[in-house]
Amino acid sequence: MTEQEQFDEVVRAGRTVESADWMPDGYRATLIRQIAQHAHSEIIGMQPEGAWLTRAPSLRRKAILIAKVQDEAGHGLYLYGAAETLGISRSEMLDLLHADKHRYAMSFDYGVPTWADVAALGWLGDGAAIVNQVPLSRCSYGPYARAMARVCKEESFHQRQGFEAMAALVAGTDAQRAMAQAAVDRWWWPALMLFGPPDDESPRTADSMRWGIKRNTNDELRRKFVDMTAPQAEHLGLTLPDPKLRRRDDGTYEFTTIDLEEFTNNLRGQGPYARQRRDYRRDAHANGAWVREAVAAFQARAQIEPEVA
To answer: What contacts 125, CB < 8 A, 6 or more positions away?
Structure first.
């Protein structure tokens, strides 16, 4: 049996591929691209929420948001570690991000002008992330699947935090309810875009499905998210900004597809806050150079001068 046949058999049987196993070049390249993009998204995603740490409306909300931002940093570390098992270093991935050769989730290129947007980002953005990521905990690549098992548990906390914060707003004043609705209007479409392009515009989906990296297509996951979220919006008394949205007799929802032109522009790095997010990340990396240099010097010295018990 050839290496290719052995790989195909592992994937077909639902077993995991490990870092030391043979794998096709395309499989490795696809995983590096996807896991790196996922890791970058976690790190970039700290920016819009981190900006609200000093402006959270109560000490309780601040503590919750601090925990969430810390979680995102941890998710980035798990995922960079998973990608490194494929033969690419963390510094290489960051260099590619800073050179605009790697992407991240485009939803973070939108603004978060009010506290209600923080709630909407948690409820809708993290809700979409959970739907997208739970199947990845059954990904054929073991290190990625194991990282996702923990990430998804923490993302479910983030989604509940966002929903609870939104529920508090709609139970408040007229102004708070209006702020909540305005935030939903801003975040509904970016949340739907998180699932990627429509299936007929997604050239990588077929290979990812065949290799067991993905278990569902973009459109399948998007539909699942809408079916899950529309009843939640109804419970909150909020209107999702889709005039075609309606519940079918079988309990599923009809909805409008994403704006492909807006999606493509965002994918090219032309989102409203894209330049700000990238510049901030580059500046933060440059300003942290002295820490990396100090760690490297300490490690080098430790190898030369072993610690004496």
So the answer is: 107, 162, 187, 190, 191, 194
The span from the first CA to the last CA of the chain, in angstroms, equals 52
- As given in the structure block, the two tokens for residue 95 are 């260099």
Condensed to tens digits (0 to 9), the pLDDT of residues 263-290 reads 999 988 889 999 999 999 999 999 999 9
User: Do the beta carbons of residue 7 and residue 17 sit within 8 Å?
Assistant: yes
| Contact call for residues 180 and 119 (beta carbons, < 8 A) | yes
d(CA 169, CA 287) in angstroms, rounded, equals 38
Contacts of 134 (CB under 8 A, 6+ apart): 148, 152
Q: What is the CA radius of gyration of the chain?
A: 21
CA distance 17 to 215: 15
Q: Which residues contact 66 (CB under 8 A, 6 or more apart)?
A: 53
Q: Which amino acid is at 133?
A: Q
DSSP for residue 243: T
Place of tokens 């992330």: 129
- The packing angle between helices 126-133 and 142-170, to 10°, is 150
- Report the candidate in 304, 291, 171 with the shortest Cα–Cα distance to residue 238: 171
Q: Which tokens hold the place of 283?
A: 């500046």
Q: Which residues contact 163 (CB under 8 A, 6 or more apart)?
A: 119, 122, 123, 127, 232, 236
Report which secondary-structure segment, H or E, holds 4: helix 3-12
Q: Is the pTM of this model over 0.90?
A: yes
